[in-house]
Design a protein that fits this description.
Elements lengths: L2 E9 L1 H14 L6 E8 L2 E4 L16 E3 L6 E4 L3 E9 L7 H17 L6 E2 L6 E3 L2 E11 L2 E9 L32 H16 L2
Parallel strand pairs: 1-2, 3-4
Antiparallel strand pairs: 2-6, 3-5, 6-10, 7-8, 8-9, 9-10
Helix pairs in contact: 2-3
Length: 202
């Protein structure tokens, strides 16, 4: 049950979303699961049930309505995104178990940098002393998942002040570099890849 990991670099959001949707629609029983590691150009994304009022002032950053769960979030340079394109029955995973596995992979990655983080049962994601450092949003179609997680590595956090992150007004946001960890997306990508493969049985 190997997982193919693709390093996509910095890519546009809409083209990547279309690629995930196409991959999920066309995959069959023998299609290998994949993880895409990448970085996006600046964009706010609104989940299926997101309230547009949580976008306070988008300014020059585009807003995209997308087909994942969750509210509004921001993607931009310096943030590591991992899209998990998985056949859930094959991996014997339900949605809740997948969320837990993704959160555990982030927490384990941060622990390797001496950063103590935790999840919140009623607010998916990963937090360090109340500040959000990792976000999750998933879609499951034909028993297969896409979208995934975003981990703040070394980024301009100002755009988060233009929204209510994940629907929470005033939610503090942080990143790995501010907490004394590495600022390299390549290093964090390698470390997160290792933890994801361990958590997902890849």
């Amino acid at each position: 049950m190997s997982i193919l990991v693709r390093q996509l670099g910095r890519v546009g959001y809409q083209e990547t979303l279309a690629a995930m949707q196409r991959f999920t629609s066309e995959r069959g029983a023998a299609t290998m699961d994949e993880i895409w590691l990448l970085e996006h150009d600046p964009v706010f994304t609104l989940g299926l049930n997101a309230d547009p009022r949580h976008v306070i002032s988008a300014g020059n950053i585009p807003v995209a309505k997308v087909d994942r769960g969750g509210q509004v979030t921001y993607h931009g340079p310096g943030q590591l995104v991992a899209y998990t394109l998985l056949d859930l029955p094959r991996r014997q995973l339900g949605v809740r178990a997948l969320v837990t596995a993704l959160e555990a992979a982030i927490i384990a990655t941060l622990a390797g940098y001496g950063i103590s983080a935790a999840s919140k049962p009623k607010a998916p994601g990963v937090y360090v002393e109340g500040a959000k450092i990792g976000s999750l949003g998933l879609r499951v179609r034909r028993n297969c998942s896409y979208h995934g997680l975003a981990l703040n590595v070394d980024m301009d956090l100002e755009p988060f002040s233009r929204i209510n992150p994940c629907g929470y007004a005033g939610l503090a946001v942080t990143d790995i570099a501010r907490l004394g960890g590495p600022s390299s997306l390549e290093q964090v990508g390698r470390d997160l890849e290792t933890r994801l493969l361990a958590a997902l049985g890849g």
